[in-house]
Fold these 4 entries.
Entry 1:
Amino acid sequence: MAEKVMRIRSTPGGLDSNLDPVPSTEDKREIRTLAVEPGLSEELAELGRDGERIEFTVYLRRRADVVNGDELLIRGDRYSVRVVDWRSPRTARGGLVALASLGRG
């Protein structure tokens, strides 16, 4: 069974026709993945800062509703994503790959 992750899409607020503030919204949807692969995680120790960068590669079906700028909730943490189209060099099959990263510290 494939791992499930939550896709979070934020829509910024603004002003309505009366120039009253409109709050931003978040649309959360559970999406099924084909696979979630841990990527290289590294610790950063620059300029006296203790930090880390955590990465995952998430494989999705071609029609998955994930775009650049979305965030994914993977194993309890919220990651920013960059989505790329992937096609096998040996077959015509392909899908989407979401490169998820989180920096903290």
Entry 2:
Amino acid sequence: MEHFGICAACGQGAKRLRACASERHFLILCDECDAAWFTLEDEAPTYLKQPDLPCPACGASLVQPPSRWATLDEIRQLGWGDDLVSKSE
């Protein structure tokens, strides 16, 4: 499971890259508490409206299909591959 470290907000979940349902935008999202970050440099998380967690860029859901966790290839294409704490090859 690819992730960027443990969520500072809840201390339990992993910060992972999520593709919204439009599959055009990506957001860093805690897989436990749904805290969100726009970039790896952001210190304070954003909390999106429950239950669909709308993408800030387009409003598409970060929960409903076809939203999904980003693949390792997508993470690398976005230039964040070196920032991963854990990656499955």
Entry 3:
Amino acid sequence: MTSLAIRLRGPLDADRLADAFTEVVARHEALRTTFDDGVQIVHPPHEVAFTDNRPFDLRRGPLIRPRLERVADDEHVLALEIHHIVTDGWSNGVILDEVMALYRGETLDRPTIQYADFAAWQRNRDLDGQLAYWTQTLAELPAADLPTDRPRPAVRTTTGAVHEAVVPQRIATRLREISRRHETTLFTTLNAACNILLSRWTGQRDVTVGTVTNGRDRAELDRVVGFFVNTLVLRSTVAGTFDDYLDTVRGNVQEAFKHQDVPFERVVDAVQPQRDPSRTPLFQVMVVLQNAPQAAPRLPGIEVEDVELPLTTANFDVTIEFQEQGGDLLVAVTYNADLFEADTIARLTEHLGILLDGIAAEPSAKIAELPLLTADELQKLAAWNNSTVATKPCTLAELVEEQAARTPKATAVMGTETLTYAELNARANALA
């Protein structure tokens, strides 16, 4: 389900607003669609009424549910919930824009294309060549997870939370300049930075992340309502200077978008990764730069204000979402709260900010030399290394044995099983 909400302050005509929704639903077949055993059924236009909060029924519909809550005589909250099978973030912007225009009394051009036309065109395309690209690019993917604070449940959960930050204009402007110099997009530069961050956190150079494409590669699709979004997998080897690595990532991103027409589900089926119900297939981290239409809704005589909805779902372990606002870059890191503590994600986000600052200052630097740690973390490292006591040469097994003698009941291993130092040492000796 996708949701959005706006606060309306002023003399609102609720009937007129409902009529606007009725006309928008009549304009777009996707909003009049139900699904019965996988068969798509488009229904005739019908009147739309404001409803209460109830579950979606794919067989009976409707799959668009506007709700109008009266807060005071001159204040309402309009909440719009739409099943994700018939819409995406871009489409939500189109729907809200048309509702506002019709409420204002404007006349809209009749749609010339419906989502079903796009779906038929996509079904008839020969995608074997594109699929071959994905099977070759994603062969032998390594298992790369961020270190988690809690054991991963046997079956993936979606309990979500979010941490937000701002990349200031000074850094964001410089990142845009670097992107232009490399003849690439800001997204590509941010993707490269996130890959480096993940490489440093996981200790692996072969990094894979997901991203999304809006699927609207033709201008006539810009005002069509439907689910066009597709997931792409971006893989690269983190190495060299940032400048050199950015050129590599630019080529990888360009190739991925050239082959964006293959539905993600078909890519997964073709690559055949080892399936694990505790993980999403192919990647665990999503990186997105939002570019959906962001025009502010306008109604005559009414003040319109966005309402921030509470986040309850995390579709991946971590999603790093950027959005340009003025000269700044807003960063929202959505994470699975069953895996990570809030402090861990706050530290990850802070490391990302430090890394972006370092890239902006010296993009020609070697990746291994780019800054990542906070001042406090650097001080701790210096203190830990500031020792005058010589360490004797010994094996890891000997270190464990000594620690087991000092603190036999202290926890040594945490994961699906917990072991004390005494238990760990006993198991090691049994294997020796």
Entry 4:
Amino acid sequence: MVQWWRQRRNHGAQQRALLAALLTLLLVPSTVGLLKAETNVACPTALQVFGGDLPYVGVLQAWPAGQRPAARQRCFPAGHASGGFGLLGLVFLARRRRTRVSIVLGVLVLGWLMGLYKMAIGDHFFSHTWISMLIGWLVSSVAGVWLGAGGRLSLSRAGELECSCPYSYIDPK
């Protein structure tokens, strides 16, 4: 097995793709976890309009005087969904466009199912899951570009976008 791995012609690209996938799997939930600790946004079930004790306060708003909760609120963005969206990094491991599209669609379905479940039980708003999805997409894109796992983009003389993308969301055809 080791000998087979060493003889692979595209070994460097495979390593970069694997590293991009692993970084995405780790960084998406970690980034969302760090944001949850800092945003101090309450879950819908804790809000007064839904029978809870806290007033609604947006992400960039201050708590009303005398109504600041004793404990930090950790509800934004959606943590469970970020685990699903963290799988977006798997797209770097696929060689064929059809496989990449299947991975992206499957990951989006999984992440949204996890998010919808948490919305159904009152733990998140739609925007919490939406932001988690965007973070997943951003982190996976940055990891792919940073590690060179996404190939090279260039403009042809005719002004068309050309791509040598064996492991990316972008397909030249």
